[in-house]
Amino acid sequence: MTQTLLSIKGLSKRFDLRAGAFGQTAITVHALDDFTADIRAGETLSLVGESGCGKSTTGFCLLNLHRPSGGSVIYDGQDIAGLDEDAMRPFRRDLQIVFQDPYSTLNPRMTIGEALSEPILFHKLATKAELPARLAQLLADVGLTPAFARRYPHELSGGQRQRVAIARALACQPRFIVCDEAISALDVSVQAQILNLLLDLQDKYGLTYLFIAHDLAVVRHISDRVGVMYLGRLAELAPARDLFARPLHPYTRALLSAVPEPDPRAARSRQRLEGEVPSPLNPPQGCRFHTRCPLARDPCKTKVPAWREVAPDHRVACHAVTGKDQTNWETP
Amino acid sequence: MEQPTNLWRDAWKRLRRNKLALAGLAVVAFLVFVAAFGPWLAPHDYLSQNLDLRSVPPQAAHWFGTDDLGRDVLSRLIYGARTAFLVAVAVTLIAVGIGVILGAIAGFYGGTFDRFVMWFTDMTMSVPQLLLVVVINASLKQPISTWMETQYLASLNPIWRNTMLADFVLVFGSMALISWPPYARLVRAQVLSIRSRPYVTAARALGLTNRIILARYVLPNAMGPLVVAVSAGLGTAMVLESAFSFLGVGVTPPTPSWGNMISDGLRVWTNSPHLLVAPAAVLAVVTVAFNFLGDGLNDALNPKGQK
To answer: How far is B4 from chain A (nearest CA, A)?
Structure first.
């Protein structure tokens, strides 16, 4: 059994907005609710879901880039959720992030070399004398030549910038990287290159990834485990093969049936969802999916479904799922 | 050849294509040159009176004529440029300094300090400029010169006899006190928009301290609009200095300022129009030049706004 790197329990994030001329109206956005999962050393855990479902918020809260409203993240035996910047600093080296937009992820006023040197010198990972060699090594790791160190971000293509962003994360010699839609903004051909680069680096340095994406084909290809999120909650979490072969949660089923099928003659059972995703400003009571769920019954409207392991390593939050067959209703 | 290009280089390229901005730049550069080398350029002493040659029109020995005390107008204009430039640069530096520090900290950290700074900024902006300068001059000029006199008597150090010093400090101080709010607002707005960019979040994820992030990630990217504002601000400060000197609350005669030259010329303009026209023309040209340069810089640094 592999080791747990990050143990996440009940992680939640609410954004409190104030509206009205005197800030008298408080609006709460429930971006992330009760996220519980373990991230295992060396694995790629993917999070999928529609935009606004809380995937990125999860990544940001894990790294304390958003201060979580509740819950715990145990890393190295310590709860790092909600630590202040100074207390968090020693952990920052180990836990890194790569962002979606390659055009705003690099400081336009710094050369690539300066951008990569910053974390190395700040964390004293190399001396000034070792720096050029370390920069060359980092650039080589992401498939760039040492000449790139003198360039500015705007001289680089999107794919090259994303390589630099990965190198910057690697500069800290991390154990864990959140890839927040790291390839979504790139051309399809470049996506494949960056994806392969990420996989190579994972092998080389034993990295653990939290891969946030919405491209199910990519997720299926690279993930060890996949978590499906809906409106700030985890709906289902299972090994990739399991999830794609036997999705249990009705939302997962609908999501997977929406994946385009390359073979036009293949038989398809398309499961359509009615309506829109409800607003996270005012999420439905009970199961958040009940407004659109084909299986919804009365208890779904009032009672939040428990996060249960219904098959080995296969967790679901749904009243309708008891075993491997989702039609069995447990009596709540 | 791989030339590292950056924002300033690109901006310069665009600025070079803008003829008006180049003309403005040329005038400003000339002004800087004149202000810097004034004592070597001026054909006469700006204070020496030639009572045989009073209020003469422009001629070979005196290109812009002489004033009613027989002082060379060209020399006084050149020294006036020194005054104007010194005041403009000092006032703008102080104002930008206050504005950048307050605006950056307020925008970056937010919260109570931000609300306090913005409240203070609004309050300062609501004070009538002219009134403040008049009040400061009226209430402080006399006490300061008395104090300097006692200092001189105590130490006999001639620096305390230099009334120009007190004059300038008062002018700088009162003008800077009313000039910083626009800079503070501008910097705060810039910092607010930049602090949520992914490269700032990435810097936080790297574990860098707030001070490093503010100094190396946020502020350098907030500089573009500030450069434009400073260029326009220098021009405004020069006009403001002239306006105050014109009204008699700025630089005290006999220190030459374009403002007090215009004021003096106004009284005799029917007989000696050159005494009014020369300083007024210089002030107008310099003001227009700063505005052209500011507009040009604005276009050069914000290429998206162009067609």
So the answer is: 6
CB contact under 8 A, A99 and B198: yes
Q: Which residue of B has its CA nearest to A98?
A: B202
Q: Examine the predicted complex and report whether its ipTM is higher than 0.90.
A: no
- CB-nearest to A104 from B2, B199, B204 is B199
Residue in chain A nearest B199 by alpha carbon: A105
Tokens 């310590």 -> residue: A78
Average pLDDT, chain A: 86
Contact B216 A110 (CB under 8 A): yes
CATH number, domain of B126, equals: 1.10.3720.10
Q: Is the dihedral of CA B212, B218, B224, B226 positive or negative?
A: negative
- Residues of chain B with Cβ-Cβ distance to A151 below 8 Å are 2, 4
Name which of A93, A109, A117 to mutate to probe chain B: the one with the most chain B Cβ atoms within 10 A of its Cβ.
A109
Task: Grade residue B7 by pLDDT with cuts at 50, 70 and 90.
Answer: low
- The verdict on whether omega for the bond into residue B254 sits within 30 degrees of 0, i.e. cis, is yes
Whether residue B47 is contained in a domain is answered as no
Contacts of B201 in chain A (CB under 8 A): 65, 97, 99
Interface contact flag, B2 A65, Cβ < 8 Å: no
| DSSP codes of every residue in A256-269 | HHTSPPS-TTS---
Instruction: Give the side-chain half-sphere CA count within 13 A for A146.
Output: 7
State the total domains in chain B: 1
Q: Where is pLDDT greater, at A180 or B66?
A: A180
Does the distance separating the beta carbons of A152 and B6 come in below 8 Å? yes
* Residues facing A78 on adjacent strands: A75
A104 has a chain B CB within 8 A of its CB: yes
- Express each pLDDT in B99-157 by its tens digit: 999 999 999 988 888 899 999 999 988 888 888 888 887 788 778 878 888 888 888 88
Domains of chain A by residue range: 4-19+27-260+270-284
Contact B197 A118 (CB under 8 A): no
Query: Average pLDDT, stretch A95-101?
Result: 91
* B62 falls within a domain: no
- The pLDDT score that the predictor gives to residue B3 is 42
Residues of A in contact with B210 (CB under 8 A): 85
B14 inside domain: no
**Which CATH architecture describes the domain A4-19+27-260+270-284?**
3-Layer(aba) Sandwich (3.40)
Alpha-helix runs per DSSP H in B251-301: 258-267, 274-301
**Token representation of residue B36:** 């810097």
Task: Judge whether residue A67 has pLDDT over 60.
Answer: yes
Asked if the Cβ–Cβ distance from B7 to A108 is below 8 Å, we say yes
Q: Please answer yes or no on whether A85 and B6 come within 8 Å at the CB atom.
A: no
Separation of alpha carbons B79 and A181, rounded Å? 62
As a whole number of angstroms, the distance between CA B77 and CA B34 comes to: 10
B4, B201, B209 ranked by CB distance to A65: nearest: B201
- Under the banding of pLDDT at 50, 70 and 90, the label for residue A270 is low
The predicted model gives B173-197 an average pLDDT of 89
Which single residue is written with the structure tokens 């299926």? Answer: A220
Q: Which residues of A touch B217 (CB under 8 A)?
A: 107
Task: Give the mean pLDDT of A311-316.
Answer: 88
Q: Provide the domain limits for residue B187.
A: 69-302
Q: Are B262 and B241 in contact (CB under 8 A)?
A: no
DSSP3 helix / strand / coil % (chain B, rounded to 5): 75, 0, 25
